[in-house]
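User: I'm preparing a small set of examples for a lab meeting where we compare how different chains pack in three dimensions. I only have the primary sequence for this one, and I'd like the structure in token form so I can line it up with the others. Please keep the answer compact; I'll paste it straight into my notes.
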Amino acid sequence: MFLVETNRVKRLLHLSFIGKVSAADLERSGDEVQALLKELPPGFVLLTDLSRLETMEVACGKQIGRTMDWCRQHGVGKIVRVVPDPTKDIGLNILSIFHYEPGMRVITCESLTQAERHLAA
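Assistant: Understood. Below is the structure token output for the 121-residue chain.
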């Protein structure tokens, strides 16, 4: 499952990957991601949460890249990732090289508690 939500007050886009995530899950939510991005001002924070992820299809990489492109186009200012198990990271750092501007601030944390400190800063 893939969930996306925003917090306009905190200027936050939150992407949650839960259980078994398929490429179809991500593709179905593309319009929702783009609509929610329009609600956020440039400089928003992207929180990507893999803490409840069990597995993800390799084919998800294509849609994740598209989502990164949309975030870049809408002016993402900072990226905070929660990746408690590095073996479940499907190459976010590599995708970032191709889809974000050089020097983009990306912070990887092991827990949401750790990420919270970076979201406020």
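A couple of notes for your slides: The beta strands are 2-7, 12-21, 45-56, 78-82, 106-109. The chain is about 35% helix and 30% strand.

User: Perfect, thanks.
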